Each structure stands twice: as structure tokens, then as C-alpha cells.
Amino acid sequence: MSQRPNNLFYAVREDLWNTIRLEIKLTEPVEAAALEQAAALTASRFPYFAVKLVRDGEHFILEQNDAPFVITHDIRPVRLNSAQSGQHLISFAWEGDLLFIDTTHFMMDGQSMFPFLQTLLYCYLKILHPEAVFDESRIALPGSEIPAEELDDDPYPDSPVPVEPFPVRKRPGEILKLAGQPKEYDNMKHWTSFILRVRQRELMNYVSGVDGSPASFAASMMCRAMQELYPENSLPIVCGMQHQFRGALGKLRSHLCHVNIVPIVYPDSLRTAPIDRLNTIGRGTLILQADDEHDLLTVNAHIRNEQAVRDMTLSEKQDYMRRVLLDGIGNNTFEVSYTGRVNWAGLDRYISYVAPCLDLTLSGGVSVEIFSCADDFMINIMQRNEDHGIITEIRKLFKENGIACMIEKAGHFEIAEFEMP
Q1: pLDDT digit string, tens, across residues 187-222
Q2: pTM to 2 decimal places
Q3: Which strands form 2-3's sheet, in the order they lie side by side?
Q4: Beta strands 90-95 and 71-72, pairing class
Q5: How far is 291 from 308, CA to CA, in rounded Å?
Q6: How far is CA 360 from CA 116, 373, 385, in A?
């Protein structure tokens, strides 16, 4: 079985990996033997993720990889698509009660990663706790039939579709960028993750009262923190909101990564605006720019890029797709991604938290990931340094708005390197 990979794989270089690391803290220490069995069962249910990236002339293709997933008892990630990972684009690591999944964001987004994680944890926990009862109707069980729509490696139309989007304000040319950001991966040993725990009911009660959402809430809090940290700044602050467009594509079960970046612009005129207004502006922007019509622009852009690179040499494809990637997401002050409130089918009884960590070379230097677990939201604020200024401002804003939060964990993180074929 061979698959066509996302064309954005051609953008990968030594200075741009776009890998992600998912950190899961369990309620009990990891059992390596059970994890190995669970990983093999999960690979059988998700064969399109048990692959390796290979070169075929001037193209890349994904080929089936029957080697077992690599699982290391080491907190550091291994290089993906290399001998270290068994040529896989996914690897696992563990230490104590922490489990890590490393993969490439060009293969998975949050929507496609969650079923994979859910199946892995189900298989793992059923080995250790055969008496445990989970809602199996919500879990992709090993041995179950895989829907054709889920297996489809080319869910896009053959040609661009007609679209008449509502006109929106253009992204400003010059924006606030964090000062002193190192280039590429030179300082990854200083990349820091602050994981906050917030009660879902408490946060949802707040955002419902200001016509917002968890995503617009995080964006408005980050905007206000930036305004406090850069009081002399008069440039617009831009949040790059990650948004998936499966709905417009009409392929809700597609396993591919379907992520678009919606810019939420906060001009300096909003510096003294109340936080609830910032929430409403963010939510309104998402309604206008993340509807099906605007999402179809992203679908059409993908189709045109596919047509453009079809007959290029490999080198030409790499240059072209790198420009596409950097033009699309490389001009934000910070980024926010919200996976949504997911149904764990009872697995979350054994989970303390889940926190995705991203490649910060593709942001303004700060990214926020929101993931739900049990009754809580886990808000992971990542930055390319060890400074506590942003997290101090964020916690102050939580308190001012009557929302309780606690720091679940603060520490360094790394992402996996990626080896091109």
C-alpha cells in the first residue's frame, strides 16, 4: 500500500521539522510490555499511520512500514523517519507515569491524533485492567472495519470549486513580534511549557457570558498579556488560530492533517478594551473566516498547489512548498489551537492530563494548545525561552476574571527531529 503524502512534507528542512510531541500523564507508572502490545494493536487499526516516507524519483510517497513502533525508556525524542524510529513517522517514549507520542504535524492534526491516542490507551488499559469498562462504541477497536472515507489519501476534489466568501480585513504587514527570538532550533534546550489546569464548567460559564469560546478566550488572554509586556508597542497583535476544515471538504473522517490558520487581528485601538470585548472580536472573526466558504478557499489552494508541483523537480517542490508554508503561518505574534471537548469513553479515569507540544519555529515564538481531559481543560502555553512574564500575566488575568487555575507542570520540552529520505 502506498499513499500520497501531504505536499507540505516537501517543506521540511533541517531548520523546519514541524513535528509535535503529545505528553500524557497517567495515574500510574507506564508498563513497557503492555505499551508494546498496545502499540502493535493500534498500528493494525491505523495502517495509514504505520508508514515511512520514501523518495520515488522526484516525488515522496508513504509506504507501509511493518516494523514495530519504536518505544524508548527515555524522555528525549528520537529522529523520525530514521533508523532510530524504525523509519516510522511516529515513535513513543516513556518515563515514570509520563507517556510521549512524537509525530509529524504534516501527517496528523488534533482531529486525527485523538482516535489514534484513544485506541492506544484503550488497548493498553485493557491489558492492565481487563475488568475496566469503557464505552467501546466510541473507540476505533482493533479488528473493526475501517471506513473507506477514513482510508482515503486524496479526499480533495479534482479541481477548485466555486466559492464566494464574505470579504474580510487583510492581515497587516507589520505586527508585534516578540523580541530576541532565536532562530530555528538553536535554543531548543530552553523551550518551556507551562501547563495550566482549568475547570471546564467554570471556563465555559465565563465564555458563554461574553459571546466567546475557549479558543477566543485563550487568544484574548494572550493578547492582553502581550499588551502588558510590551506597553510601548503600537503595532497590531495577531493570533494565528489553528482551525481544521474537514466540514467544508465534506470528509469528516479524513485521517489527513487539515489545518488552516485564521488570523485574529487586535489593533492598538483595543489596548484599553475590556477582556469580554476581545473575546467577542475573536469569536466573531472565527465565525466570519472559519465558515465553509472561507474554508473552501483553503481547499482550492491545496488543489492548486497540488497541480503546481505535480511536474516540478524535487528541489523545486521543496522551495515552492516552503514558501507556501511560511507565507501561510509565519506571520503571527502567537498561535492558539483548540482540539475541542473530546469524549474519552471512560479512559480519562486513568489520565491526569494530556498536553500537545508544537514546533515553535513556525510561530511568533509562543503557542497555546487547549486539550480537554475529564472535567478540566489543559492549557499548554509554550515559548522559546524560560521567562515567566507571559505566564505571570495570564494567571493574573484568570484571577481578575474570577477563573481558578493552577500550574500543573512547568518545564522544558523538545520535539523530534525529522530525517528526509
Answers
A1: 899 999 999 999 999 999 998 888 888 999 999 999
A2: 0.95
A3: 2-3, 59-64, 51-56
A4: parallel
A5: 26
A6: 24, 24, 11
